[in-house]
Amino acid sequence: MSDATQAASGATATLRRAFHYRDLEKAGATFKTVTDASVAWSYGDGQKAETAAASTLGIADLSPLPRTGYKGRDIAKWLTKQKLKVGDASNQAYPCGKGSLAAKLAPGEVVILGAIDGSDPLPEKLDAAWTDKNGLCFAVPRRDASFWFMITGTRTSDMFAKICGVDLRPKSFANHAIAQTSVARSNAIIIRDDLGKVPAFHILSDSASASYMWMCLLDAMQEFGGRPVGLQTVLSLCK
Amino acid sequence: MKILNCPLNGPRNISEFICAGEVEVEPDPNRCSNAEWAEYIFLHDNDAGVVQEWWCHVPTAYWFIVERNNLTDEILRTFPSTEIFTKRQEYSRPDQEAS
Questions:
Q1: Which residue intervals of A63-164 are DSSP H helices?
Q2: Residue B51 and which of A80, A123, B34, B98 are 20 to 30 A apart at CA?
Q3: DSSP per position, B20-76
Q4: What pLDDT does B91 receive?
């Protein structure tokens, strides 16, 4: 666990919290402060049970954690100026910084997901460096605009097959591939980012739909025994 | 399920797309007649056969062009709009145009 993670627990007014934190509270989440955010850390029935669930099918809320995005014809120039190497291929994610991920959505659009343990200051650094004097390069406030969930486990693609038309089976959808498509009738970005040997997918979509999508995903996961898992469990799978 | 091949995202369910009508080249608003401008804005060719149309992949808001036979509803080709529109459309008032 990084130094950025502090021992404080419980959401306070000064911390960022999930868009649908009431749903998380109802599900029994306990919260922990990571950087400037209160994140669902665990669900109170033991690390062992959560780890087992996360290996089969789990959903974690990462919405309060740092991320950012940029749009426009000149983003490549600006990212190079920031010494960030992002490949040319669209719909592909590129590891960068210290555990962050640059998701290239199109030649003129990128989303930067901060390290899930909150230890990489890259998103904040980029946002602090951004000005409107970089040609056609506009900041997109992804931390406010999009929720961020992570779906983990071997049954993930089975679950997605019920609510998404894209084939996300590991043999068809490589690690770090991106699909921008419709999930449960909402527009979403899906990024495969395995945790060690466990298949895992980030899903980002409109923050106003966070509660709706959380319910849809839990409903779709039910038949495979899926359940919410905390950030603590997700981080344990990285090791 | 009908599938459309998006030039950016690959094959996707047709329900992820919207069609925005035929591709037309915009006349220069500073030089064309009112009749030409009105035709561009209000009138459509409505050809039967192979046509080029604007389509948008809604989840990514990506606009591209589809070549489609609207008699058989067969999609012949999809391609980025940059194949036809090679530069950004700029607008200026007639009195501010560079001479």
A1: 75-81, 122-129, 142-145, 156-163
A2: B34
A3: EEE--PPP-TTTS-HHHHHHHHH-----SSEEEEEEEEGGGTEEEEEEEETTTTEEE
A4: 84
- Report the residue of B2, B5, B8, B85 to disrupt the A interface, i.e. the one with the largest count of A CBs within 10 Å: B8
Establish if A106 touches chain B: CB-CB under 8 angstroms: yes
Task: State the average pLDDT for chain B.
Answer: 92
User: Where is A110: in which H helix or E strand?
Assistant: strand A109-113
Q: Is A181 within the bounds of a domain?
A: no
- Please name which of A52, A120, A126 lies closest in space to residue A82, comparing C-alpha atoms: A126
Is the ipTM of this structure higher than 0.90? no
Helix (H) or strand (E) holding A112: strand A109-113
Its domain, for residue A78, covers: 67-140
Low-confidence ranges of chain A (pLDDT < 70): 1-13
In this structure, the answer to whether residues A155 and A61 fall within a common structural domain is yes
Helix axes A210-221, A156-163, angle to 10 degrees: 120
Based on the domain organization, do A44 and A120 belong to the same domain?
no
Residues in chain B closer than 8 A to A182 (CB atoms)? 13, 15-16, 58-59
CA angle B47, B51, B56 (to 5 degrees): 125
Q: Say how far apart CA B5 and CA B7 lie, in whole Å.
A: 6
Q: Is A154 on the interface with B (CB under 8 A)?
A: no
What is the domain count for chain A?
2
At B12 the pLDDT is 95
Same-domain check for residues A48 and A160: yes
